[in-house]
Amino acid sequence: MPGTTAREYTLSLTEVERAELLKVLEEAFTETRVELRRTEAPEYHDEVAHEESVLRGLVNKVRQLK
Questions:
Q1: Which alpha helices (H) appear in the chain, and where do they start and end?
Q2: Domain range spanning residue 26?
């Protein structure tokens, strides 16, 4: 939305939790990429593309927590 600011959150994780979260996010990202390639409806394609972008960002953020 124009004019809105995204709220930021802080989360504390153990290494085991970080690894598990990364695994789950990578699986969701992979599934979303497959769904994106298979999607033909333009409006749904845009929705899935946005989800893929958000997941990519989350995966990258969690990877940097090492």
A1: 15-38, 42-63
A2: 15-63
pLDDT range class, residue 66, cuts 50, 70, 90 = confident
Report residue 14 as tokens.
Answer: 């153990």
26 within some domain: yes
Phi, psi at residue 39, to the nearest 5°? Answer: -80, 130
5-62, pLDDT tens digit by residue? 889 999 999 999 999 999 999 999 999 999 999 998 999 999 999 999 999 999 999 9
Rounded Cα–Cα distance for residues 30 and 46 (Å): 17
Q: Give the DSSP letter of residue 44.
A: H
Asked if residue 8 belongs to a domain, the reply is no
Specify the residue for token string 């999607």.
39
